[in-house]
Structure formats: C-alpha cells, structure tokens
C-alpha cells in the first residue's frame, strides 16, 4: 500500500514451457502470502482484478470481468484451459495474478490477443491448472503425469501432401529411445494418420485426443500409420 518496491534475489525451483509457468524461491520474512482460490467457481460476468508491471509501470492494477471460461489456449504442443477477460493487459502483465473479489488468486495472466480487429481479449491460466504444475515443480522439479507419445513429427497438411506426394498426417522424424514407444512397431519414416481412430494432421490434435480421453502415462493408444 505504500508503493515501496522491494527487490529480492530469486532462484528457479522449476519451470515448464508447456504451461508457461515457473516457480521461483526468495529468502524473505514476514511477507503476506496470496491465497489460492478455486477457478472452477468462476462465472461469466464475475469481477476480476489483475496486477503486474504493464509497460514497466510497477505494481499496476486493472479491473475487468470474466468474459469467457474454458478457452483452449495453445502453448507449444499443449492446450491450456484459460480464463478470458476484458481487463487491461499489456506487456509486463504476464505472470501477474488474477484475483476474484475475495482477494483469492484464480488465474495467472499469460496472453493477450492483439490485432486490428480485437480489443479486450486477455487470457489467464486457471489457478486449478497452475496448482498441479506448481506442486509438481516444487516436489519434483518437472511436471509429472503428462502423457506424450515420445516421437518427433513433421506435420503434413492436406495441401503439403498434395504438393509433395505425401500422405497427410504426422511424419515421424525421430523416436525417443528411452520411452515405451521405442518398443512399439512404429518406425522413423512412418506417417501417423490416426490416434485411437481419430484422424490427425497436427501435434496439437494428438495432445487434445490424449487430454479428452484422460490418458495417463503408461496407458496405451492405437496408432494408425
């Protein structure tokens, strides 16, 4: 409340590129810890407040509403359930907290849609999603329980396939020798056309299939090549 900014040296406990989250540790005493809320309890139209350093302006506060829930925001090869808001988000807000009107953290600001036709489209990772990542990073240093096939693929769209005389799908360029997939019949040079019977031409579609079927590490999928 005094506007005084205190700086601390921080060490990285763990980071996760898929969720765009990291856990930092500082040595400090008598700091008030933020209370983590339940993002599943949010409703459209709820008031929210975000804090951050937009354009380098320290400890700025902006207010808006929950404009949308369960927005799927892609990050690398993974999709994140996100909260959409019209609160003012600018460069420097990323990583800042989104609070409900009880002062509980319900999200972590991470993106804004910017183009000539968009206004007030900001996004925050749900705190319920972030909690799982945070707990894993603190206890393990990495995120557990995230299913992957363990192959590196080149995405071959219908258009590219037609031009190059290839099969639409995911062309396998590399197979991780340390994962279970190395013991399967998949080979470098195969083209994956379906996973569990669902056609795929992008890595994000595979991630979505694994998420929708609630697959966990150790489960089996049927891959059509």
Query: How many strands appear in the DSSP assignment?
Result: 15
| Topology as a string of helices (H) and strands (E) | EEEEEEEEEHEHEEEEHE
Helix content bin: 10-25%
Major sheet: order of its strands?
4-5-6-9-8-7
Per the principal axes of the C-alpha atoms, what is the gross shape? Answer: elongated
Strand content: 35-45%
In angstroms, what separates the terminal alpha carbons? 60 Å
Biggest β-sheet, characterized?
Answer: 6 strands, antiparallel, barrel
pLDDT < 50 stretches:
none
> What is the C-alpha radius of gyration, as a whole number of Å?
21 Å
Average pLDDT over all residues: 85
Number of helices: 3
Class inferred from helices and paired strands:
mainly beta
Quaternary structure annotation: single chain
């Amino acid at each position: 409340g005094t506007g005084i900014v205190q700086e601390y040296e921080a060490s990285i406990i763990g980071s996760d590129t898929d969720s765009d989250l990291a856990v930092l540790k500082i040595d400090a005493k008598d700091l008030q810890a933020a209370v983590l809320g339940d993002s599943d309890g949010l409703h459209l139209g709820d008031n929210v407040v975000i804090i951050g350093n937009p354009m380098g302006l320290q400890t700025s506060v902006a207010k808006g509403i929950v404009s949308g829930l369960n927005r799927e925001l892609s990050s690398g090869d993974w999709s994140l359930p996100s909260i959409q808001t019209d609160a003012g988000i600018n460069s420097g807000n990323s990583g800042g907290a989104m609070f409900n009107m009880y002062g509980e953290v319900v999200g972590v600001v991470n993106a804004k849609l910017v183009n000539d036709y968009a206004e007030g489209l900001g996004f925050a990772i749900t705190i319920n999603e972030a909690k799982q990542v945070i707990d894993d990073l603190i206890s393990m240093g990495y995120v557990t329980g995230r299913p992957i096939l363990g192959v590196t693929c080149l995405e071959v769209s219908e258009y590219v396939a037609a031009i190059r005389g290839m099969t639409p799908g995911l062309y396998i360029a590399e197979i991780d020798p340390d994962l279970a997939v190395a013991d399967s019949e998949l080979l470098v040079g195969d083209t994956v056309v379906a996973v569990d019977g669902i056609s795929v031409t992008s890595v994000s579609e595979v991630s979505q299939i694994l998420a929708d079927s609630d697959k966990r590490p150790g489960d089996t999928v049927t891959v059509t090549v």
